[in-house]
From TrEMBL, chain B:
Signal peptide: none annotated. PANTHER family: INTEGRAL MEMBRANE PROTEIN-RELATED (PTHR37305), MEMBRANE PROTEIN (PTHR37305:SF1). This is ABC transporter permease. It comes from the Bacteria. It comes from Streptomyces celluloflavus. Keywords: Membrane, Transmembrane, Transmembrane helix. The chain crosses the membrane at residues 21-44, 64-83, 104-131, 151-170, 177-197, 231-252.
C-alpha cells in the first residue's frame, strides 16, 4: 500500500507536483498516467525517499520510505532503465544491488531468468538495447521479492512481445497480492494493463478511478455530419439548427461537423426540416486515448508547434463545461484541412470508422475535442477536468440513458458522402 | 552492523566490476614508478655536475617520488569516478532506494575505495622507492636511514588522501567532468604555481597537496621556511580531506538524489 498525502514538490518557482493525494492498493495494477513532465517521476522519487517533498508526505506500508526496515525487501523500483554503469555486466550490476540488501547471489540468477536475460548476463550492459535495459531494470526491481513495486515507464523501448510480457508480469504480480504502481504516458497501454488509474497533469490529480469507470465515463459517442463542400453557408445553418435543438457542434479539420448531444435520427430530421442536404451522417465512438488527451490537454507542457493545420484552425469551439449554455458552432474553422480534401472526409481523423457502433447503442456522446493533436490553447480554459478536485463524478454524457428511439435502419451512415443526401 | 557489511560487499562488487578501476589505478602505479625511475636516472648522471651546495641537499628518497605529481592525477580520476559514476549513470537512485541511510552508503563507498587505494598507494610508494634507489646506485638512500621509512609510508598515505579528497569533492559536485575539470588543473598547475610565486607562497603551502607532500621529503629543502613538519603537513592535508568528505556528506544527505 502506497499512500501520498498532499504531496507537493517545488523547484524554485516551478511546481512539479501540487497537493497530490492518492492511495495505491495491493492486489491491483494501478496505472499512473500523465503527459511528459507532468510530475510522474518526481512523485515516484518522493515515494522512494529520493526527493524530499516541499510539503506533504508519502508512505509505503504506513512508513516513510527512509524509515522502512530493510527497504529493498519491501519495495522494488524501476526508475530509469539506463541507470546502469555501462561497463558493468548485467549480473554484476544485479549482484551489487542484491548484496546491498543481503539477497543471496542465486536470486540474481533467478531474476535474470525471469526477465529472460540469462544468456547476456555476463555482457557489459552498455551494449544492451533499450528493451534489454528495461528488462534489467525490472529484474532489479524484482530482486528482493518485494510486496510493493514501482515501475516508471516500463514498456518504453520494448517490442510488442516485450510489452505483452510486461503487461502479463504486472498482472501476475498484482494477482499475487502485491501493490503494483506503473507509470505511463500511454492510455491505450494502461487500459489493457491497469485495474485502477491515477491521472495527473501539471502535477495535479485529474482522475483517480477504476479503469472500468474511466472507460464508461469517457468512451463517449458522437456523430459526424457533412454538408456539401460547395455550400458553406449550409454548414452554418445546420450548426445553428443543431445548437437550437440542444446539440453541440465542433468543426472537424476536413470541414465536417462533430455533433454531440443529439441522436442521429434527430440530426437527420433537423437537417431535413432546415432543408439542408447531407453528404455524411455517421456514428463514431471517441477512443479512450482521445478522452485521455482531452483530459490532459490543458496540462501538456511540451507541445509541437509544427502542427500543419495550426493556421487553418479557428479558435476551438470549446468544450463547454457541463451545464453551460448549449454552444453553437462557433469557430470559423471551415477551411478544409490539407489532409481532409473533399474526396476523403474520413482521413483527417484518428480512427474514423474503426469503432463504429451498432445503432442501438448510439448514445449522445461528449466528444467535443477536435481530434488530436490537441488544438490551440484556448481550449484549456473550458476544460472541466483541469479544475482541481478528483475526477470522481461520472461523465455527464457517457452514462446517459440510451436515446429512446433506436436508429432507423435507413439512417445514412455509410462513409460515402454521396449516399447521404 | 549487518547492513554495513552488506553495503561494503556491494561496493566492493561495484568497484571491481568496472574496468576504470584497473585502468586508473594501474596508470597511477606505472606513471609514478616509471617517472621516478627516469628522474633518478637523470639525477645519477647529472650528479657530478651539480654544485656542491646542491649535492648536499640532494634527497634521493624524494627523487624517487618524482612521478607522484603525475601519478596522483590518475588517483584523482579514480576517486572522482568511484563516486560520480553513480551520478552520471543514474545508479545513485537505485543505490539510495536500496540504502536509504545515505550516511552509511557514502561511508561504505568511501571506505571500500580507500582501502583499495591505500593498498595500491603503499605498493606504488614502495615500488617507486626501491626502483628509484636501485637506479641511483651510489647515491642511494636505505629504508633504515633516518626518516626514510616515514617518507615511503607517507607517499602511500599521500596517494590515499589525494584519492579521498577527490571522492569528497566529487560527492559535492556529482558531475565527473566538473570534478575532474576542477581537480586536475588545480593539482597539476594551479597549486604548484601558487606555491612557487613568492606573493602566494604563504597560502600555497597550506594547500592539500603541498602540505601533504612534505612527508615525502627526507632532506629539508633550502629556503624552505614552512611552519609545519612532515606529520603536521599530513595533518593539514587530512583536514582538507575531512572537510571535503563532510561537505559531500552534508550535501548528499540534504539533496534530492
Amino acid at each position: 500500500m502506497i499512500e501520498a498525502v498532499g504531496l507537493t514538490k517545488r523547484y524554485g518557482a516551478k511546481t512539479a507536483v501540487h497537493n497530490l493525494s492518492f492511495q495505491v492498493r495491493p492486489g491491483a495494477v494501478t496505472g499512473f498516467l500523465g503527459p511528459n513532465g507532468s510530475g510522474k517521476s518526481t512523485t515516484m522519487r518522493m515515494i522512494l525517499g529520493l526527493d524530499t517533498p516541499t510539503a506533504g508526505h508519502a508512505t509505503v506500508g504506513g512508513h516513510p520510505f527512509r524509515k522502512l526496515p530493510n527497504a529493498p525487501r519491501q519495495v522494488g523500483a524501476l526508475l530509469d532503465a539506463k541507470a546502469v554503469h555501462g561497463g558493468r555486466s548485467a549480473r554484476q550490476h544485479l549482484l551489487s544491488l542484491a548484496q546491498l540488501s543481503g539477497i543471496p547471489a542465486r536470486r540474481v540468477d533467478e531474476v535474470l531468468g525471469v526477465v529472460g536475460l540469462q544468456d547476456v548476463a555476463k555482457r557489459r550492459s552498455s551494449g544492451f538495447s533499450l528493451g534489454m535495459g528495461q528488462r534489467l531494470g525490472i529484474a532489479a526491481a524484482l530482486l528482493g521479492d518485494p510486496q510493493v513495486l514501482l515501475f516508471d515507464e516500463p514498456v518504453n523501448g520494448l517490442d510488442p512481445e516485450g510489452i505483452l510480457w510486461v503487461r502479463n508480469l504486472m498482472k501476475q504480480l498484482a494477482a499475487e497480492g502485491r501493490t503494483v504502481f506503473v507509470s505511463s504516458h500511454l492510455m491505450s497501454e494502461m487500459a489493457l494493463t491497469a485495474d485502477h488509474l491515477i491521472v495527473i497533469g501539471r502535477g495535479q490529480l485529474l482522475a483517480d478511478m477504476s479503469v472500468t469507470d474511466f472507460i464508461s465515463a469517457n468512451s463517449a459517442d458522437f456523430a459526424r455530419v457533412r454538408t456539401p463542400d460547395t455550400e458553406p453557408e449550409q454548414r452554418e445553418k445546420l450548426a445553428a439548427a443543431l445548437g437550437e435543438a440542444g446539440g453541440r457542434t465542433t468543426a472537424e479539420q476536413d470541414g465536417a461537423l462533430r455533433v454531440t448531444g443529439l441522436p442521429l435520427p434527430r440530426i437527420s430530421e433537423l437537417a431535413h426540416a432546415a432543408d439542408i442536404r447531407l453528404w455524411e451522417l455517421s456514428p463514431h465512438q471517441a477512443s479512450l486515448e482521445e478522452a485521455y488527451m482531452r483530459m490532459t490537454q490543458g496540462a501538456v507542457d511540451y507541445r509541437s508547434t509544427a502542427d500543419p493545420r495550426a493556421g487553418l484552425q479557428g479558435p476551438p469551439a470549446g468544450y463547454a463545461p457541463q451545464g453551460g449554455p448549449p454552444q453553437g458552432y462557433a469557430g470559423p474553422g471551415y477551411a478544409p484541412g490539407p489532409q481532409g480534401g473533399p474526396g476523403h472526409p474520413g482521413q483527417a481523423q484518428p480512427n474514423p470508422y474503426a469503432q463504429q457502433n451498432p445503432y442501438g447503442q448510439q448514445a449522445p456522446g461528449a466528444a467535443p475535442g477536435q481530434g488530436y493533436p490537441p488544438p490551440g490553447p484556448g481550449q484549456a480554459q473550458g476544460h472541466p477536468y483541469g479544475a482541481s478536485g478528483p475526477y470522481g463524478a461520472p461523465h455527464p454524457y457517457g452514462q446517459q440513458p440510451q436515446p429512446a428511439a433506436p436508429m432507423p435502419p435507413a439512417a445514412p451512415t455509410t462513409p460515402h458522402h454521396e449516399d447521404a443526401r | 552492523m549487518s547492513a554495513v557489511t552488506q553495503v561494503l560487499r556491494s561496493e566492493w562488487t561495484k568497484i571491481r566490476s568496472v574496468r576504470s578501476t584497473v585502468w586508473t589505478l594501474g596508470t597511477a602505479v606505472v606513471i609514478t614508478v616509471a617517472l621516478g625511475v627516469l628522474l633518478c636516472l637523470l639525477a645519477k648522471s647529472d650528479f657530478g655536475s651539480l654544485a656542491a651546495k646542491d649535492q648536499i641537499v640532494f634527497d634521493p628518497t624524494n627523487a624517487s617520488f618524482a612521478g607522484m605529481g603525475l601519478g596522483q592525477l590518475a588517483m584523482i580520476v579514480f576517486g572522482v569516478l568511484v563516486v560520480s559514476n553513480e551520478y552520471s549513470t543514474g545508479m545513485i537512485r537505485t543505490s539510495l532506494a536500496a540504502v536509504p541511510q545515505r550516511g552509511t552508503f557514502l561511508a561504505c563507498k568511501v571506505a571500500v575505495a580507500t582501502a583499495l587505494v591505500c593498498v595500491v598507494g603503499m605498493a606504488t610508494s614502495f615500488a617507486a622507492f626501491f626502483a628509484g634507489q636501485a637506479v641511483l646506485g651510489g647515491h642511494r638512500a636505505h629504508l633504515d636511514d633516518p626518516n626514510v621509512l616515514r617518507a615511503v609510508i607517507g607517499g602511500g598515505l599521500y596517494m590515499t588522501l589525494i584519492a579521498l579528497f577527490s571522492m569528497g569533492v566529487a560527492t559535492m559536485l556529482r558531475s565527473p567532468l566538473l570534478s575532474l575539470g576542477i581537480l586536475m588543473p588545480f593539482f597539476f598547475l594551479i597549486s604548484s604555481i601558487l606555491g612557487n610565486v613568492p606573493a602566494t607562497r604563504k597560502i600555497g603551502r597550506y594547500l592539500p597537496d603541498q602540505a601533504g607532500q612534505k612527508i615525502m621529503q627526507v632532506v629539508p629543502r633550502v629556503n624552505d621556511h614552512v611552519t609545519y613538519g612532515p606529520w603536521g603537513g599530513l595533518a593539514i592535508m587530512v583536514g582538507w580531506v575531512l572537510a571535503a568528505l563532510l561537505g559531500g556528506f552534508v550535501l548528499l544527505k540534504r539533496r534530492d538524489a
